[in-house]
Amino acid sequence: MHAYRTHTCAGLSKENVGETVRLAGWVHRVRDHGGVLFIDLRDHYGITQVLCDPDSPVFKKVEKVRAEWCIRIDGVVKARAEELVNPKIPTGEIEVYIRDLEVLGAAAELPLMVFGDQEYPEETRLRYRYLDLRREKMQANMKLRSDVVASIRKRMWDQNFREFQTPIITASSPEGARDFLVPSRLHPGKFYALPQAPQQFKQLLMVSGFDRYFQIAPCFRDEDPRADRSPTDFYQLDMEMSFVTQQDVFDTIQPVIAGIFEEFGGGRKVDSEWEQISYKDAALWYGSDKPDLRNPIKMQVVSDHFRGSGFAIFAKLLEQDGTEIRAIPAPGGGSRKFCDRMNAFAQKEGLPGMGYIFWRDQGEGMEAAGPLAKNIGPERTEAIRQQLGLEVGDAAFFLGGKPKSFEAVAGRARNVIGEELNLTDKDRFAFAWIVDFPIYEKDEETGAIDFEHNPFSMPQGGMEALQGDPLDVLGYQYDLSCNGYELVSGAIRNHKPEIMFKAFEIAGYGEDEVRKRFGGLVNAFQYGAPPHGGCAAGIDRIVMLLADEQNIREVILFPMNQRAEDLMMNAPSEPMPDQLMELGLRVIPQEK
Questions:
Q1: At residue 225, does pLDDT exceed 80?
Q2: pLDDT in tens, 470-512
Q3: Per-residue DSSP letters for 333-361?
Q4: How far is CA 428 from the centre of its chain?
Q5: Which residue among 35, 165, 356, 382 has the highest number of C-beta atoms inside a 10 angstrom radius?
């Protein structure tokens, strides 16, 4: 007999009745039923009920066993009485009578319980993550993550991609976040960096002639944490292709992503038609470049209805350049109580409030109600209703100013309205490509032009596009949005040195600086670089959506907390003096 087990805790059935077996695992819970001790024995695969009566030679030893002790038992498999069968578990038709027991690892008093659904502070869960990970939900999440990664790999190989590993220790390369720097012992005063992404290396692979590359790549960014973002490191499906257009990238990655959501989405609907929405339209309609399309609400510009109207706040606002009024339709939101609630939401978001109109039935016909309706009059109000396609029992909310000042709040308000009015379809994964990102933006205070998005994207129109107004230049850059999250980001790359130098020159970076920062890439592009493009998909975020979790830490094995600390391993920690001396470094104490 094997030293620890003949079967897993999910491996026994009625076919094993009468056999002597050996199981090993953790004590999930202990129950005393009139002197007979029942133990739910758990391992990675499942649970088996084992029991011990006073006739067992090891009854006294079993009495001492407590939750989460790791034990090995020998026993005889018996069939459960029909009325005692547990259909919820694969081993529910049998139980094992204990005849021998060995304690493999006793457990101290537990800081958190594995059995049950109790909520514990995040600090406790992360400090004792190895216990937290024993819980059923966490085991399921991590198995899901592993299965998703395996499926992604298979799907990429099936599309003739090859997996290559790129360096972890490299040069600093700005990717939109702070680097983690690594001091060099052999080159005092110089630093490596952990890669924010394998961006330059995967482009160099295309120059090297490999054509189709992918990698499940670790990426390191010193970022402020959010519920959907890790503050230190994350994993992404990184891919790059040569001799492709933007549509080729879409056609390649869509079946991979859609297939993953169909395979692991638990039966939820996966949209087959993925819209392509311009960045400009996404901001207008949804107030976000990662819209949740499960919510059908589309915002609209209604400035003309308020220009010169009796509502002085909006009328005066529209006299200023670059301002507009946008409406958020709210089908089914036509009550003063709901409108007041949304007005309070806007105030919590830092706005003075949010104007509204709602339409109600007064017996003799439809009536528009609310402060705005009184100020602008029935003709303008009716024109707004018709433009928005609203009816009795509906409402509309209004925000005004320069779009960038209120778009984000409008987008959040749209989401709240969709949730509260049950307009958002929860049983669905809705995807959209966001395209036509502007490459440049102007600083409102200084007037300086800088990159708004990825500086390595090929400008639409190439060199010719860079001769006109920089703010009109769009890039072959794209994101994939799903249910309000950015899942994929990518671009067709700028592979021509002369266009790259011109693009950086517009943003105030000279050729010498570009060569200094990105010398490896620029030099490679002088030796026959092919047109190429690709994207990266966030593994953690994909699994978070599939697991129906709100926090990305629920699908990462050993995450940092909100302050980028590993409470279990005590990181970051202070280096030893001899380590600093060897690296030629000195820590300057921070003033408190």
A1: no
A2: 999 999 999 999 999 999 999 999 999 999 999 999 999 999 9
A3: --SHHHHHHHHHHHHHTTSS--EEEEEEE
A4: 16
A5: 356
Question: Residue 228's CB: how many other CB atoms inside 10 A?
Answer: 18
Distance CA 501, CA 232 (A): 32
Q: Is 48 exposed, middle or buried (0-12, 13-18, 19+ CB in 10 A)?
A: buried
Q: Is 434 helix (H, G, I), strand (E, B) or coil?
A: strand
CA distance 459 to 503: 8
Edge to edge, the sheet with strand 431-435 lists 162-163, 212-220, 233-242, 532-538, 485-492, 477-482, 431-435, 275-278
- Token pair of 263, please? 């395979």
Residue 446: band (very low, low, confident or very high) from pLDDT cuts 50, 70, 90: confident
Q: What is the largest CA-CA distance in the chain?
A: 93
Give the C-alpha separation, 142 to 539, whole Å.
12
With 0-12 CB in 10 A as exposed, 13-18 as middle and 19+ as buried, what is 143? Answer: exposed
Contacts with 227 (C-beta within 8 Å, 6 or more apart), sequence order? 550, 551, 552
Query: Identity (one letter) of the amino acid at 300?
Result: Q
Per DSSP, the three-state class of 86 is: coil
> How many other CB atoms are found less than 10 A from the CB of residue 140?
11
End-to-end CA distance of the chain: 63
The torsion angles phi and psi of 339, rounded to 5 degrees, stand at -65, -40
The rounded radius of gyration (Å) of the Cα atoms in the chain is: 30
The tokens describing 108, both together, are: 């101290």
The answer to whether 111 and 134 are in contact (CB under 8 A) is no
Determine the Cα–Cα distance for residues 68 and 114; give it in Å rounded to an integer.
8
Residue 58 identity (one-letter amino acid): V
Residue that has been written with the tokens 């034990």 in this structure: 71
Length of the chain: 592
Question: How far is 25 from 41, CA to CA, in rounded Å?
Answer: 6
Lookup result for tokens 């395209």: 435
Please report, to the nearest 10 degrees, the dihedral formed by the alpha carbons of residues 451, 457, 458, 461 taken in order. Answer: -50
CA of 61: how far to CAs of 40, 64, 197, in Å?
16, 6, 54
Q: What is the mean pLDDT of the chain?
A: 94
129 contact partners, CB below 8 Å, separation of at least 6:
557, 558, 568
1-40 core/surface letters (b: 16 or more CB in 10 A; e: else): eeeebbbbbbbbeeebeeeebbbbbbbbbbeeeeeebebb
The pTM (predicted TM-score) of the whole model is 0.93
Q: Quick one: the chain helix, strand, coil %, rounded to 5?
A: 30, 25, 40
Which residue type does 326 have?
R
CA distance 402 to 324: 6
CA distance 349 to 112: 36
Task: Give yes or no for residue 149 having a pLDDT over 80.
Answer: yes
DSSP assignment string, 415-428: HHHHHHTT-S-SSE
Q: Give the model's pLDDT for residue 538.
A: 97
Taking a C-beta distance cutoff of 8 angstroms, is the pair 452, 440 a contact?
yes
* Six token digits for residue 46: 């499942």
